Amino acid sequence: MTIKILAIGDVANIIRTIKKYSKFEIHLINYPMDGAGKFIYQEGSELFESSKVKEQVKKINQIKNDFDVCLTTASERVAYLADLNYIAYYLGRDIDVPMFKKNSTEQWQKDSLFQKNFLERRFYWKAFKNAVTHVAGMWQYESLKKYTEDGINSARIPIDTDEFNPSVKPISLKKDKFTFFSPMRMEKAKGTDLLWKALKLCKSDFDVIGVDWYGETTEEEREFKKKLIKEMPPQIKLIQPINKNDIPKYYTFADAVIANLFLGTFELVGLESIMCGTPVIQYTDKKRKIIIDGNEIDSPFLPFSNDPKDIAETIDKIVDSDKFREKLFDEEQKFVKIISDPKKCAEWWDKLFEKTYQEKKSIRKNSSSILVKFRMINFLIVNRLYLNKLNRLIRGRYSYEKQTMYK
After folding, report:
1. How far apart are CA 148 and CA 128, in angstroms?
2. pLDDT tens string 338-370
3. How far apart, in whole angstroms, are the C-alpha atoms of residue 233 and residue 200?
4. pTM, whole model, 2 decimals?
5. Across all residues in the chain, what is the average pLDDT?
6. Is residue 316 domain-resident?
7. What is the CATH number of the domain that holds 194?
8. Taking a C-beta distance cutoff of 8 angstroms, is the pair 257, 180 a contact?
9. Are 342 and 161 in contact (CB under 8 A)?
10. Percent of the chain with pLDDT over 90
11. Domain containing residue 49
12. 183 lies in the same domain as 326
């Protein structure tokens, strides 16, 4: 069976990896990259030429008939407006802080990330409900199951072993002592404040290479950044943001990696570094379930507590004991090979693509043309495009040169 997949959006290049190992043809179209996105984005997909939703939907409508199945990550609204049958895959804030929830915010913040009005929230709820399948793993599934009973729980995260492996030549840097690498954004969600406290309690001697990259989405995060800078421990050595293609060189350079110390489950940093042969410190909350093919498996990442004292103890053991470090890495490697084998991950997705195609037969949902047009008009109105244009026309101040296009 030959199936062509249209993938819209790509969080952390995961779809790009699935595409490489899938037996089916996957065409990936991603959003224009700016800011930090320029550093984490890897080549291998088409980019929308515009950041305007109306133009993105127009592009999808032009090409959708060439495909059989649609896969979205953080892209439901485009697929919904283009009237597609789509699989929604959740990898981040798009489900634990959904736009359809009033004053939606992270569990560790007070400031809302999204302050949508009722009509906007209603639109995004319809886009969510319109997906033919919802897929999430790790902490994202805990959020997904609040909104649907039919979500699929899978913690598989593919890592491209051609790019992340122990044979990658290390970056050319001077290393005077045991050196950790920690490439994450510095923010509460990554446990940066916990790391700062732990480093003050450590007894061993080491450096930590961190990236000068902070969470700054809300005013709360911006204030938190100021505190992190003011209280930064002497072990931290900052470097400028790194292109994604260069990160494997830092993994193989480092003696160990410090990953997320807050969430209680793994992220790409921990998985990638293990694939590069480098042990990882990463907080594991045993209450968070990790499901693979319907079976629960345990994470070996340490510590099992994110108390700064326990973090500091783990850091010191990693630095001082070769035996401890080697044993931990062996256990982490066995786990990551189950979670992140790219071929097995692709096989899992191929089965889901086949199942979706057999059930739906077409990428087109084939709603009435009137309904589809109404969706777009409704979206533009609730996003104030036509509403603002109407106001300016009434006031006699409208001009094409001053027209504002809302994203």
Report:
1. 10
2. 999 999 999 999 999 999 999 999 999 989 989
3. 7
4. 0.87
5. 88
6. yes
7. 3.40.50.2000
8. yes
9. yes
10. 67
11. 4-158+345-400
12. yes
